[in-house]
Amino acid sequence: MSDTNADANTDGDALRTPIVAVLGHVDHGKTTLLDRIRGSAVQEGEAGAITQHIGATAVPLETVSEMAGALVDPSDFDLPGLLFIDTPGHHSFSTLRARGGALADIAVLVVDVNDGFQPQTEEAIDILRRTGTPFVVAANKIDTTPGWNPQEDVPIQQSLEAQSDRAESRLNENLYELVGDLSDAGFSADFYWRVQDFQKNVGVVPLSAMTGEGVPDLLTVLMGLSQRYLKGEMAVDATGPGKGTVLEVKEERGFGATLDVVLYDGVIRIGETIVVGGQNEPIVTEVRALLQPRPNAEIRAEKRFETVEEVAAAAGVKIAAPDLDEAMAGAPVRVVRDRDVDEVVAEVREELAEIEVETAEDGVVVKADTLGSLEAMANALAEAEIPILRAEVGDVAPRDVAVAETANEEKYRVILGFNVDTLSNAERELESSEVRLFSDDVIYQLVEEYEEHVAELERAQQ
Ligand code: GDP
């Protein structure tokens, strides 16, 4: 309600945009869905123009209501809209943390309605459960069901009801199978229009990222879910010192190493001192420039960005500052402002230390690209009952080979590298040792590769 909004603003507090992540199995349509949301939002008029951020897309409430028509009455909402993180997938989801939890406030789990649950769907569900992130399921690709007639600008419920019996029954079969899969995974689920309590039930939104049918319904559900259950968590200090999470550390010509950051609280300004989680120690530096993509950006790097004086949460922004080479994706960023630098450094250090990996006397060596992915690897290995001798962020180095060599059992003389490179001197070490290196950028595949290796060793010993 608008009066709540006024209340929220009187004491310097504001309600920020909920941060939305898109997860799901490969090829189930995550990228297409994000493109579709961006594309349809761009087509809507002035009132609801989306803003492209670094690493994220903001869809304002007006745009959601324009797209959703009768489904959304903007006066029912006081959250400003939705901020979609542009990088889909659970790798980025688990990498992106904030305050020890997930950076995303809410998630969309994309499932190909013809394909149903797949390994990465299960992985995504596990991560959502572990982080307690509320989510809705986008039952995607309904346009590929034989006999389905596309109907534009009609809420998906009506569209479904109006379909021919054959298409409907076929689609319904798939949709009910999906509801069954969700129930096997421990979630009670139903078509979103039948769900009364989204905290108890998972809403399934049938849609097509390709044709756009059902996409307004999805935005409506996300908006409603956020308004009803997340509003309290969206209250931020609009002018307080900025807090964010690093999406990526990127070399940018003319700027050196820069940070792509999602700011989830407060505000960040040019010239301010910030503390960023680094590979060894927290980095203390000063903001040189805050960059946003230029609308209709030209290809030439210098022209791609425009400088802004300040950025307020929730938003994506590129930060240029000295000494960012050792900054880590997934690490916290804090504006110091009126506080003691040491205090903020201690806070950053503490937040990084929260990611603890349980290690054993004997086990494998794990290397991963970020703290979040290291944690995800550790969880996957714990589930598969594979002990860890040492786990660290960074590329595979000679030291890792030396550590892996100290494992007692042969099956543990292994390095599992997740999304990392191998330094060339480490490659030489590997050649002259019996340590095996497995690397992959999909967690379950990495675990599977290792399990196959162990099975092979066991067969050889028999
Ligand atoms: P991602 O790996 O989850 O990001 O999947 P993509 O978005 O790349 O989609 C994989 C393939 O499925 C692409 O060829 C898309 O064009 C196609 N696709 C995605 N959504 C739909 C949909 O709703 N309908 C149809 N027919 N194809 C789709």
Automatic annotation (TrEMBL):
GO terms for molecular function: GTP binding; GTPase activity; translation initiation factor activity. One of its GO terms (cellular component) is cytoplasm. The keyword Nucleotide-binding applies. Transmembrane segments: none annotated. Residues 15-230 form the Tr-type G domain. GTP binds at residues 24-31, 86-90, 140-143. Keywords: GTP-binding, Initiation factor, Nucleotide-binding, Protein biosynthesis. Function in general translation initiation by promoting the binding of the formylmethionine-tRNA to ribosomes. Seems to function along with eIF-2. Belongs to the TRAFAC class translation factor GTPase superfamily. Classic translation factor GTPase family. IF-2 subfamily. This is Probable translation initiation factor IF-2. It comes from Halorarum salinum. The chain holds residues 1 to 462 of 602 of the full protein.
